[in-house]
Design goal:
single chain, SH3-like_bac-type, 6 domains, SH3 type barrels, about 575 residues, 6-stranded mixed sheet, 5-stranded antiparallel sheet, signal, alpha+beta, hydrolase, globular
């Protein structure tokens, strides 16, 4: 009898354990999977907002579909749990591997492609890939694919992997650009001086360049992928049509490597490639995309924000400059690489420094620097020795001179702000924009202050205190926006008390960038509400929109925004 009782007890225990084990696994996915498209999405106990939250899921994560009622999907969670999510925050996939079986390899088409540990930007970084690298495609889900290369394995955005060619070598060769070696150069195994030297090329050698990354060019050397410094290459891919077609506006590529597509969209197929420094005639424009002839007889579309545009002008009449010198009037005056405030600063000069004048272009003096180098300085920042008329400061400088401007780069330190669809941190981008604006205002004679100049946390009260302590004529708070709906794009500007500054800044930036206009609005923000000075807060584009994130992080856009903000504040100070 005892043995029978023991056997019954053991049988019950076995059934309980077996049931527990069966419940531990995830629910079966008879209806496919969903990928979560929202950050920190609530999972509810039933199909509706009235049900309590039972869990949270993150953007990019994939879950099996158990059933669906209206706009709500029941998903299987870990440890046998389940819950409901709103369909409009998901993307359905019917299989975990939707890559074309014949396309087992791909080519990276982005300059620096982030690889993550899971299918979405919420996952941590596993490494990065450079343009032109070959990868093996392992798996795909939604807009992400799992890849494997010689250096890293993980998940990347599908739009930056091209799988259209029958082999990686074939595709790479269709996108090559010819270059001539201008001086003897070492060939290395990786794009760095620390890369192993495997040979060298002599002056005059011709090479096919497949991609560029951070000043290095990828070539084929003895049948292997190798790298040389782009500094020693002269590219010969400008077509005669581009050079001779002087009636059309011209544009210079500003990205290291830029894909050419068959339509004016990131959804277009990659059909070619151009490199930084190449100049093309713009044949057509559409929604921030430009059509160019990238090879003789071949046209395609490229992202317009990766071009520096310049309308052809009649030759500027030169003033005689032989034997003349200029003297710098202020400490910290910028010497730039080209004629214009958009050009990079190559060094700074102080009050009393003198330089020999070589040439004059649009009110900018080209001057001779030490070591045989040359640079450009704004004519209104120096005095001219010898015959010639002194160059006056442009109109904007008249109204900003001696005015106190406080620039407030949003977020900083442990407050990253929003994180873009491709991983851009708002705190970094606001500081970049603020520094560009600071340089423009400072050069115009304004008294400029920044609430932060590095990646540090500054409280909202401290930001307002800076505005009050400096008795600011204008307080400009710089931000970038985010929203769950990835299709939303454009610029919004906010005010609290007086809309005049916000209106001038907004209209000027819209005019310069052609961004979608979301208008000037009332905003109950601390830095506006508690600020006694004239203030405005600008949201300069949506980082949650993948296409707009690419736009607003480009050098061309940043320069255009800074130009617009400068003109807007100058106009405001002139009128008000």
């Amino acid at each position: 009898m005892l043995n029978k009782k023991m056997a019954a007890v053991l049988l019950c225990l076995l059934l309980i354990v077996t049931g527990s084990i069966q419940k531990a696994g995830p629910a079966e996915a008879n209806n496919g999977f969903v990928t979560i498209t929202a950050s920190n999405l609530n999972v509810r106990g039933g199909p509706g907002l009235s049900y309590s939250v039972v869990s949270k899921v993150n953007k990019g994560e994939k879950y099996p579909i158990l059933t669906q009622e209206g706009d709500w999907i029941k998903i299987g969670l870990s440890a046998g749990r389940e819950g409901w999510v709103a369909e409009w925050f998901t993307s359905k996939v019917t299989t975990s591997n939707d890559v074309n079986p014949s396309a087992t390899t791909g080519i990276v088409t982005a300059d620096s492609l982030r690889v993550r540990t899971g299918p979405g930007t919420s996952y941590s970084l596993a490494g990065s890939l450079t343009n032109g690298e070959t990868v093996t495609i392992v798996e795909s889900t939604g807009n992400s694919i799992k890849i494997k290369s010689t250096s890293v394995e993980g998940w990347v955005s599908k739009e930056y992997i091209s799988t259209g060619a029958s082999s990686s070598t074939t595709q790479a060769r269709t996108q090559q650009t010819e270059a001539v070696v201008s001086s003897g150069v070492n060939v290395r195994t990786s794009p760095s001086l620390s890369g192993e030297k495997i040979g060298s090329l002599i002056k005059g050698s011709r090479v096919a360049v497949y991609s560029q990354s951070n000043g290095w060019a990828q070539i084929q050397f003895n049948g292997t992928n190798s790298w040389v410094s782009s500094e020693y290459l002269e590219f010969a891919n400008q077509t005669a049509a581009n050079i001779s077609n002087s009636s059309l506006p011209q544009a210079t590529v500003s990205a290291s490597t830029l894909s050419i597509r068959d339509s004016a969209s990131l959804d277009g197929s990659v059909i070619g490639q151009v490199l930084k420094g190449q100049r093309f005639a713009i044949l057509e424009e559409s929604n921030n995309w430009v059509k160019i002839e990238y090879e003789t007889g071949k046209t395609g579309w490229a992202a317009g924000w990766f071009f520096e545009k310049s309308q052809n002008k009649a030759p500027v009449s030169k003033r005689p400059l032989n034997g003349q010198t200029i003297t710098v009037l202020s400490n910290g005056t910028n010497i730039r690489s080209d004629a214009g405030a958009h050009a990079s600063v190559i060094q700074r000069a102080d009050n009393g420094d003198r330089f020999e004048v070589i040439d004059l272009t649009d009110d900018w003096y080209q001057i001779r620097l030490k070591g045989g180098k040359t640079g450009y300085v704004a004519g209104w920042l120096v005095s001219l020795t010898g015959s010639g008329q002194q160059i006056e400061k442009p109109d904007g400088g008249v109204h900003t001179k001696n005015k106190k401007i406080v620039i407030d780069p949003g977020h900083g330190g442990n407050d990253s702000g929003t994180i873009g669809a491709r991983g851009t941190l708002e705190k970094d981008l606001t500081l970049t924009t603020a520094k560009l604006l600071y340089n423009k205002l400072k050069s115009s004679g304004a008294d400029v202050y920044m609430t932060r100049t590095s990646d540090t946390y500054v409280s909202l009260a401290s930001r307002v205190a800076t505005s009050h302590n400096q008795n600011a004529d204008a307080f400009i708070s710089i931000h970038y926006d985010s929203i769950e709906d990835k299709s939303v794009r454009g610029m919004t500007t906010y005010y609290y008390n007086n809309p005049n500054l916000a209106k001038e800044l907004h209209s000027s930036v819209i005019n310069k960038t052609k961004l979608n206009n979301r208008e000037v609005r009332y905003g109950n923000y601390h830095v506006l509400r508690e600020n006694r000075q004239n203030s405005a807060l600008l949201e300069l584009g949506y980082l949650s929109n993948p296409t707009e994130e690419i736009l607003v992080t480009s050098q061309q856009y940043q320069q255009s925004v800074a130009d617009g903000l400068f003109e807007g504040v100058a106009r405001y100070l002139k009128v008000f």
